[in-house]
Amino acid sequence: MSAGTPADVAPVAAAAVPLADVVRGALVESVHLGHVVVLAPDGSVRLALGDPDVTVWARSSLKPLQAVAMLRAGLDVDGERLALVCASHNGEDGHLDVVRSLLDDAGLTAADLRNTPDWPLDPDAAWQWRADGHGRSPLTQNCSGKHAGMLGTCVGQGWSTDDYLDAAHPLQVAVREVVAELTGVEVAHATVDGCGAPLFSTTLVGLARSFARLSTAAESPQARVAAAMRAHPWHVAGTGRDATAFGSGVPGLVAKDGADGVYAAGMPDGSAVALKVLDGSSRPRAAVLAAALAVAGVDPAVVRPLGATPVLGHGVPVGEVRATFGPWADGR
Questions:
Q1: Residue 227, domain CATH
Q2: Higher-confidence residue: 271 or 329?
Q3: Which Pfam families does UniProt cross-reference here (predicted)?
Q4: What is the pTM of this model?
C-alpha cells in the first residue's frame, strides 16, 4: 500500500472539469474544478462530471462506514451518540458532553483518546475553550466522537486500546473490510487521516454507492447509522454548518462532508451523490451538492437555499458561488 505517488495522483487532476464558478459582480472571479457523480435509484449513473471512477481519499465522508464497522463489532450505541460517532463536530458543549458519555460507558476518559489535539471548529466554542484556560485537546478535535466509538468498540471486544490506530489492529481491519464491501471497490491505498486514524481509498462512484446502501438499508447496522444521522444532524456537524443544514432540510437525506473538498449523500429511494473538489476547497461544496441533489431528484426549491454561498464585498453579498450544472447553472 502507498500514501500516493505522482502516478497515482495525476489522473485526479487530468480528468477534472469545472464544477463551480465564483461570481463577483458581473465577472467570474475564480473556478473550482473537480468530479461529481449522481446515481439513480437503480444504481446507474445519472450524471458524471469529470471521472466518476477516480480514486480518492474520502476523508471524513467515510465516518458512517467506519461506524458500521464498529456496530458490527459490538458497539451498542444509537441516537445522538451514534450520530457523534459519525461526526466531524464543532466542539460545542453539546458535542463534548456526548463524547464524554461515550468514554464514560467504556470506563475511559479523554486521556485515552489518540486523535490529534486541536481546537474546536466552532469559533465561539474555540474562544470559550481558550478563555477557560484549555489548550488544544483530542476531546475538542472534530473526530473525537469517532475515536471514542473506536475505543468503546475495543473495550467491548477485549481488544487493546493503546494501538487502536494501527492499521493491523482488528478494528481497523474490520473498517477496511466494510469500506470495500459497501463501496464495492477494493481498497487500493491506505494512509493516515488528519486525526491519526487509518484512511482507506475508494472511488467516487464507490463512495456514492456506499451512501445509497446506507440510505436504503433496513434492520442492520447500516440502517442504524442512517437513522441516527437523519434524526440528529446537529450532532453530525454543528451550528452554522452546511452538513447540519442539508441533514435538517432534506427529509431522509444521509449526508457527510469530508476534508479537502469531499461530500457524499444518499436518499431513501437509493439515489446518491459524491463529489470531490480538486483544489480541496470547502467553498464550493454546498453549492455543488445542492445542484447534484437537484439532478438526483430532490426539489430544487428545497436544496437551492441550502447550497447558497454568497460572495461578499464589504460584508454584503455582491455575487455567489454557482454550480456549473443543474437547474440554476445559468444564474436564474
A1: 3.40.710
A2: 271
A3: Asparaginase_II
A4: 0.96
